Amino acid sequence: MSIKTNLQILKEVVDIFLPTFASTFLTYIIETINLAYVGHLGDPYIISGVALGTIYFYTFGLTVLMGFNSVVATLVSQSYGQRDLRLCRHYLNRGRSMALLSCLPMSFVMLLSGPIFRFFNFDERCIGFAQIYTSMLIPMLVFQSQFDVTYKFLNCFSKTYPVVCI
Length: 166
Fold this sequence. Notes:
Blueprint lengths: L5 H34 L4 H38 L3 H27 L1 H7 L4 H13 L1 H19 L4 H5 L1
Helix pairs in contact: 1-2, 2-3, 2-5, 2-6, 3-6, 4-5
């Protein structure tokens, strides 16, 4: 049994870290670019509406779906540890189906952003822009949930580079 040097350990950590960081960074930078673009329009109500919509989308949409998708990572890791690749594939397909089905109630929650913002007494003009923005993000919810399932599945196999390409 060979002992790994610090440089070999560092290389292994960087090989895992860089693709994971890149894919996460690219996922979240999209919303920052959207907000910066809208900021150049000069209307404070549009800016606050997009900001509210972004927070709502990530809090009530993606965070919930990513939590559901974490179950796939747990089950795939266990079945991969048992060398049962057929079961890994089964969990991936089941996870994709569940992610797709869970997008339906999450889409309904996205459409409820207006009443929720009204409950917290936000400005009506901001609510209007936030409602439009969150409803436009519903397709992203579907694609992001499928990406997240695939990302977590590949991570279980230590295949982090394909995630950046996806």
